[in-house]
Amino acid sequence: MTPDETGAPRTAHAAHEPRIAPLGDAALTVVFGERIDAALGERVRRAASSVRRAAAAGAIAGVVDVVPAYTTLVVHYDPLAVEHATIAARVLELVRALPDAADGVVDAPRHHVLSVRYDGPDLDDVARRCGLGVREVVERHASAEYRVELVGFVPGFGYLAPLDPALVLPRRDRPRRAVPAGSVAIAGAQTGVYPLTTPGGWHLIGRTDVALFDPARAEPALLRVGDRVRFVPSA
Amino acid sequence: MAPTIVVERSRGYLAVQDLGRPGHRADGVPPGGAMDRLALRLANLLAGNVGTAAALEWSVGESVLRLARDTRLAIAGAGARATLDGETAPLWTSIAARAGSALRLEPTPGGRFCYVAIAGGIDVPIVLGSRATYLPARFGGHEGRALDAGDALAAGAPRDALPAEGAAIPESLRPAYDSAAPIRVVATAQAELLDERGWRALLGEEHRIGPGDRMGYRLDGPAMPPRAADALPSEGACAGAVQLPGDGHPIVLMPDGPTVGGYAKPAVVIGADLARLAQRPIGGAVRFARVEVVEAQAATRRAEAKGEELARYLRELAENDIRRSR
Fold first, then answer.
1. Per-residue b/e over B154-187, b at no fewer than 16 CB within 10 Å?
2. Do residue B241 and residue A21 have CB atoms under 8 angstroms apart?
3. Which of A221, A220, A210, A223 lies closest to A114 in space, CA to CA?
4. Strand (E) or helix (H) holding B91
5. How close A201 gets to chain B, by Cα (Å)?
6. Is the entire prediction scored with pTM above 0.90?
7. Residues facing B243 on adjacent strands
8. A29: nearest CA in chain B?
């Protein structure tokens, strides 16, 4: 085993001990594991909550942004306020102090219900490719409770999982140059809503009027990692 | 509010920028802000502003700005030649411009971004803590977009103590954009996703700046395909990240680049060198060198100390000028 730069031994599966490495000189990445799994994602979210709370309480200096993802947590910081070695050690301490058992997420997830007009331009095509009727596609999409796994790529875009396996399709071969804001879409094992009009390669199955991103709001992005989302077909 | 500056012509890119909006990456909002942060800060100091004021970021296309009022301004960066009513307007200099005068910027080789700072700063609404324009989501700056002919902008109230007219940053203290020194990178947690041959190609060979914009610059040159291109879960990214799509042609993320991504990022350009990379023209050569994070952060601290020294120098010029005039 080779020690990582904080001196902790690096094991092949990193079951309990994450490794930390610089992400440039103003951020670091905490790697919790190599493959997506639900327990790992939960651990990342709890670590993110812990770092955010510690930063808000002044218990860790220099933190600017905390970005959880499937298997990693990126902490952006001010390199003029703190050096890498110092903040990496602090983050590792916070992560080590997390309880092993999932005894509740530190930040309670919010639950969102989004009303959707299931009339997207790809709905018929999705139904055909999945060997299902349109109604069944809608029922399967709308009957699930999704978790926000990741936010990013464009402001307010939440990657929602798990999508019903019967609806799993690869992305479109030819992305659209402009997917309208509010489009409800699926690709791979995930679903999501486009917060803005942007290019996109997911299959469009509906539209929602809910604003997933508004820079004028106190909380500009509606979705946070760990939140739960349900879709409801509108009349 | 009465305008201070009116865009008469904008053949390239012109937009309001400041030092950006860090603190919102968890919402998918990248920090954005000036591609060359030091040049923006110095232009501001020369115009009598705090370094963080909003200015105009200009790139690669002839622009003409009409000053509607007597004002103090400064231009800093690379890749432009400026004239004020036809007379050469030196960069890196505090310039008094009279109402009605026209400032013209033309592209020159050797750089890409210049900053035009106006005393008082550009006054546009603050969105998510900043006046920077975020074009992909169309918010911030002036109506969330690049400026066009006919756009009129107001400036804030100038501060009392402006630098002396003609105060300039000496050439020896300006950023060395044409330096042949390699762009330094730090290896990341994904360093092993690039094999030895790939690292030798990244560090040992010359690359050329390919097409790009404020979200990222593509690099042309040797291909560096990453291991396991398909299976990576997305994770947090940052400006300077050297992303490797499956085809092996790197894309270096810039300040408006996405906050997360699924491409391998074995290396990140250090903060102190990102502006120099951003200022490289398309087709320009670039080499990379790997450093440890300790050295990268030392470079950041040195750059900041140098910026503070320049700010002090300009303040002393202003004070000396005030004393002399008493």
1. bbbebeeebbbeebbbeeeebbebeeeeebbbbb
2. no
3. A210
4. none
5. 15
6. yes
7. B251
8. B189
Nearest-CA distance B325 → chain A (Å):
38
Nearest to A206 by CA among A145, A120, A79: A120
Cα separation, B109 vs B104, whole angstroms: 16
Q: How many whole angstroms separate alpha carbon B151 and alpha carbon B8? A: 8
Chain-centre distance of CA B158, in angstroms? 23
Q: Which of residues 97-156 of B touch A (CB under 8 A)?
A: 127-128, 136-140
Strand order through the sheet with B5-10: B87-88, B80-84, B102-107, B63-67, B5-10, B152-155, B122-123
- Residue B118 CA to residue B54 CA, distance in Å, equals 9
How do the pLDDT tens digits run along chain A, 235 residues long? 444 445 444 444 445 689 999 999 999 999 999 888 888 999 999 999 999 999 999 999 999 999 999 999 999 999 999 999 999 999 999 999 987 655 545 678 899 999 999 999 999 999 999 999 999 999 999 999 999 999 998 999 999 999 999 999 998 888 899 999 999 999 999 999 999 998 889 999 999 999 999 999 999 999 999 999 999 999 6
This model of the complex carries an ipTM of 0.96
Length of chain B: 326
Token pair listed for B235: 């994770």
